[in-house]
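Help needed: design a sequence for this.
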């Protein structure tokens, strides 16, 4: 079993602080820069929290906001204490270009937003930001700029936006039983990462996953479900090798995390685009496991062998800060490939 890469949740970076400054400037910097698409960008952190009461109030008071569609707001353009990103009029003629701008957050900021939102959800203190009429209109006409791509299971007990206490246009979510990565999932993820430019990709498994349990127990699987389960079997085998005395139920539990790493491996192996973006520092891929009962998401960091995998799989550019570590690491690379690759071919 892989060592679990537990990384502390990062505090807001200097870049985040800069975003905060942008948010509170009387005249938004992006307006002076001629950025007409900031209105569709996701809400950014304010102070130590991401979603403020103002978000919720704003959703409940659409009359105080500027209308969408590029028209002037009656009674002036001031939106009171609304954030600039929420009161900027939208130029619908250029809505299709929004994706080119991408979200105005970094991967670490996006991770912080998810962590804080999940903490609210788990504590039953959800604020449900970006869920009002104004938000719907804004993203419908201004285009979407989600700040994260999430691949997770189709399980009905994972209401993804609620789990992270986010709203409309915030998360680009891909769901499939067992959070595996076939061609359709990979294509959708490449759309989220490559076209919509989300700086963060989260692969999230969950406790008591039925698809994982099927793979772990070796139960007969009907119809097309078999194809999904086959993708999980390499993770089951690794869990068994590392825990030969474990019971079937324990193996199923251990496989949840292994399956997350399996999927990250599959994504990297089959997508030169994702490898390139990770290597260039434009994308961070992290694993996560959602606890169905407790409601908490445990983020488990990047794949523990990511640097070696990028080298072994052939990234087009070195990952920042990892070049030196990779040099002369042939043994580690081989080990990484052996550890990370599915036990049966490429798992497809
Ligand atoms: Zn599941």
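Sure. Designed sequence:
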């Amino acid at each position: 079993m892989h060592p679990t890469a537990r990384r502390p949740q990062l505090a807001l970076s200097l870049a985040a602080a800069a975003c905060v400054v942008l948010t509170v400037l009387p005249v938004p910097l992006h307006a002076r820069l001629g950025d007409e698409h900031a209105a569709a960008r996701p809400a950014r952190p304010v102070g130590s929290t991401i979603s403020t009461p103002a978000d919720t109030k704003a959703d409940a008071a659409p009359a105080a906001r500027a209308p969408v569609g590029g028209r002037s707001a009656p009674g002036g353009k001031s939106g009171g204490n609304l954030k600039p990103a929420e009161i900027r009029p939208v130029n619908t003629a250029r809505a299709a270009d929004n994706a080119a701008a991408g979200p105005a957050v970094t991967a670490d900021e996006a991770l912080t937003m998810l962590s804080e939102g999940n903490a609210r959800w788990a504590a039953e203190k959800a604020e449900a930001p970006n869920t009002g009429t104004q938000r719907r209109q804004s993203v419908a006409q201004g285009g979407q700029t989600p700040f994260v791509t999430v691949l997770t299971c189709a399980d009905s007990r994972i209401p993804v936006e609620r789990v992270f206490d986010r709203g409309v246009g915030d998360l680009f979510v891909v769901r499939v039983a067992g959070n595996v990565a076939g061609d359709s999932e990979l294509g959708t993820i490449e759309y989220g990462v490559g076209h919509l430019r989300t700086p963060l990709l989260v692969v999230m498994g969950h406790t008591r996953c039925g698809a994982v349990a099927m793979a772990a127990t070796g139960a007969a699987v009907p119809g097309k479900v078999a194809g999904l389960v086959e993708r999980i079997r390499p993770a089951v085998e690794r869990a068994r090798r590392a825990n030969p005395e474990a019971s079937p139920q324990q193996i199923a539990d251990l496989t949840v995390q292994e399956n997350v790493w399996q999927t990250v491996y599959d994504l990297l192996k089959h997508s030169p685009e994702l490898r390139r973006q990770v290597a260039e520092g434009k994308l961070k891929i992290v694993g996560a496991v959602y606890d169905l009962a407790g409601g908490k998401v445990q983020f488990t960091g990047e794949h523990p062998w990511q640097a070696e995998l990028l080298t072994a799989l052939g990234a087009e550019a070195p990952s920042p800060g990892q070049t030196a570590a990779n040099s002369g690491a042939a043994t580690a690379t081989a080990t990484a490939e052996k550890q990370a690759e599915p036990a049966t071919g490429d798992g497809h």
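Residues 153, 155, 178, 206, 209-211 surround zinc ion (CB under 6 Å).
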